[in-house]
Design brief:
By secondary structure, this protein is an alpha+beta fold. The protein has two helices and five strands. It has a single domain, classed as 2-Layer Sandwich (HIT family, subunit A), CATH 3.30.428. Strand 1 and strand 2 form a beta hairpin. Bound molecules: guanosine-5'-monophosphate and zinc ion (ZN).
Length: 113
Amino acid sequence: MDCIFCQIADGKVPSEIFYQDKEIIAFPDIHPLAPIHVIIIPKKHVPSIAHINEKDLSLIGRMVNVANQIAENKGISDRGYRLVINCGKEGGQMVPHLHLHLLGGKQLANGLT
Ligand code: 5GP
Ligand code: ZN
């Protein structure tokens, strides 16, 4: 499939890997917007958070847990960080494979737009 995040999950496109298990993989964003900018994805291709159904809810919980653990490993748990999921065109989603952004390591701006 012609999906860049599937290719990273499959190891077809090499990347540094911060975490992986059977269902989830985490890697650095190619254009970081903060000193720490990690992408956490399900290994299976889910187009967006809008495509999550009831049986996937634990997957989202596990993705958040992975993000929290990476924040802890990188020493920013106490300083704070931001978790973001963009959804669809007006939500600013550019890569059509569900992903959670972990941003931190600097003072992030207030506001969301
Ligand atoms: P979105 O706007 O879809 O929420 O965010 C997509 C993110 O994926 C962007 O921050 C962008 O920099 C990142 N990205 C796009 N292409 C690649 C890639 O090939 N490798 C990695 N590691 N990140 C990518
Ligand atoms: Zn994909």
